[in-house]
Amino acid sequence: MSVKNYLSSLAKLLLSTLIISVFVLQLTAQDISGDPGMNQNNKIDNYSWKKLLKKGNKAYTEGDYKDAIFWFKHALKKAEIESGHDITYGLSADYLASSYGYLQLYDEAEPLYREVISIYEDIYGVDDPEYANSLQNLANLLVAKGSYKKAEQLYLELFDLYNDLGINNSDYASLLNEMAELYVLQGSYIEAESFYSEVLKLKIKEFGQNHPSYAASLEGLAYLYQIQGLYDKAEALDIEALDIIKKANRKNKFNREYSISIYNLAVIYQAQGRYGKAEQFYKESLEIDEKLFDKNHLQYAVSLSGLASLYKLLGFYDKAEPLYSEILEIEEKVLGKDHPDYASSLYDVALLYQAQGISSKSETLYLQAKEIYSKVLGKDHPAYASTLISLAWFYKTRHQYTKSKQFYIEGLEVYEKTIGKDHPYYAIALSNLAGLYKVQGEYAMAESLYLESNKIIKNALTESNPSYAISLNNLAGLYDDKG
To answer: Which superfamily does CATH assign the domain made up of 293-374 to?
Structure first.
């Protein structure tokens, strides 16, 4: 079972103010262990390994990951008792690790994946696709943990292994896609584009240009362009993907691929300022997901979040707030309050309060998020750095410059350790710190930081990127203030 499902884009980058929010919280093992009671436990002890695994798979497919963990743990125990650490144990551990991973229980998932790798190496050898897949799962987990360099080493090892095995199919394309996503996170956009382009070639070869799998890869490349502010390129690819999906599902408009595609376009239209079209597409996506899922499903909450973010941006706070309340209610019911999706929504509400000038509530939610990230991922993680930068921006808007400077500097230090000083996120945070010095009249410090930021953005994104234009505009504004 792949951990790919829970590797998602958790960063929201607003280039003008650098609000990057990566929300990763953690449940405890006790929270998800479940206790069906003594009689039920006795009954479960009589279940076969296959039945336990089937029940776990059913729960996983339905998105009930806590229940999936309960069944997979029993399957693991049954496999160990009956067969020791053989293939049934390995499969059980693999499924259990994936379920833990989806709930961001990385400390529980990682040792299981490493155990699976050891078992598969013994059973299949290192030149087998099953062994390669187990390495890929661990690499994906390391990405989710923010251990990008370790993940990159595993991906490159896999790249060589796949080439040695002559694997050039959808599994290989999946690996290249995951490498592209990693390079996006590291800010290595040229490398990411190269890998996405290679994925598209493989998809054409295997499926042709009218297959939903090819459309999904187009959307990956579109996302890369989107986060660089290249909205016209992103829009063109997403429209192409949408056309493919429409043709592939002529008889059924209400399908998940179509909903995802129009949601992606809504995000681009929102970024372009085409708010009417964005609202139209968000609502259409929401309508489809309401038919595909019930209103207590997490995917419905995701669709709600897009429309809520648009209303928040437009200042329609009376429309945004009830949507966020509905999202929180769904996530609390399905995931509990100690889940990253719930935390992400709390952060969105913090932004909503801040926009309305309700600073005390906003600050409380920001600080709550910061403390949880620190406990879960530690202080050397990009997600933790992002919350620090967001808090710095918050305090800057409140004219609490000492606090703001403290958080900017701490955030930059973590970014330097984790994603490096050549990453656009580092550059934008640097630019925001320069803006803080500027409002305090420390023009020499501000100029030095603006120039450093401009250089990084120019190298990472090229001069034609909108972010570079913004960075130049910031510097020009400084010179105007200096006179």
So the answer is: Tetratricopeptide repeat domain (1.25.40.10)
